[in-house]
Amino acid sequence: MHKIAQAPPQVQNLRLIIAKIVVVALYGVGVVGLSLPEYREYFLMLTPAQLLITLVLLLGFHRGWSEAFPIFAAAAFWLGFGAELIGIHTGYIFGDYVYGPTLGPMLWEVPIIIGVNWFILVYLTGAVFYKVTDNDLLAATLGATAMLVIDYIMEPVAVALDMWHWKFEVIPPENYLTWFAVAFLIHLIYRKGNFDKGNPIAAFVLVTMILFFTILNFTLEL
């Protein structure tokens, strides 16, 4: 595997500062726009773009470009997307729900961006916890638990913004149990992947995303 030449520390620091400014602007403007009913429709259309920009920023600071990384990325995308696909058409994994138009183009009634979202969340939480322990099972448990907390914060906002809707408007308990299980599985794959898991912007992006959904829980009419 060839080593990628590193930019001077001053350049790396400048890139990191610029990226953090972009993240704050991206999610800060999003909070304001989604909180104002007269502008909400326009900002909802930008939701897939917001996730794609987040993906590009994360990959821009990713260090572990080994052969194992795209395998993990594909597994995260397709396991997450596949679980949603089964859930939508059977109601047996996460519960009985349907997707709205907010998340953009769909494949078999599931937004394609959902697979990207699974990758992003596992990547972020995995990058934050990868140094906490050498035990893969414990690390996967911590990462999946963090994703469970994010899902709990995100659910009311997602419903209010027409991302998805639950039958009888009730979130079933199995949604959280199976979300944890799928996240745990993908985190194990992440841990077993032989690639550098450090990313200097991951923790910042994760905190920003959590704040984004937390604030919207208070500004939206849920």
Q: Could you spell the SSE succession in H and E letters? A: HHHHEEEHHEHH
How many strand segments? 4
Question: Kindly state the mean pLDDT as a whole number?
Answer: 90
The 3D shape can be described as globular
Radius of gyration over alpha carbons? Answer: 17 Å
How far do the termini sit from each other? 50 Å
Contiguous uncertain segments of 5+ residues: none
Summarize the biggest pleated sheet: 2 strands, antiparallel
Helical content, roughly?
55-70%
What is the structure about, briefly put?
68% of the residues lie in helices and 5% in strands. With 222 residues, the protein is mostly helical. It has one domain.
Describe the fold and architecture:
It contains eight helices and four strands, in the order ααααβββααβαα. By secondary structure, the protein is mostly helical. The protein has one domain. The strands form two sheets. Strands 1-4 form a two-stranded antiparallel ribbon. Strand 2 (106-107) and strand 3 (110-111) form a beta hairpin. It is globular, with a radius of gyration of 17 Å. The relative contact order is 0.16. Keywords: Membrane, Transmembrane, Transmembrane helix. Pfam families: Caroten_synth (PF04240). The chain crosses the membrane at residues 16-36, 42-61, 68-94, 106-130, 137-154, 174-190, 202-220. It comes from Algoriphagus ratkowskyi.
How would the blueprint of this fold be written?
Elements: H1 9-35, H2 37-44, H3 47-60, H4 68-90, E1 97-99, E2 106-107, E3 110-111, H5 113-129, H6 136-160, E4 164-166, H7 173-192, H8 202-219
Keywords: Membrane, Transmembrane, Transmembrane helix
Transmembrane segments: 16-36, 42-61, 68-94, 106-130, 137-154, 174-190, 202-220
Protein name: Carotenoid biosynthesis protein
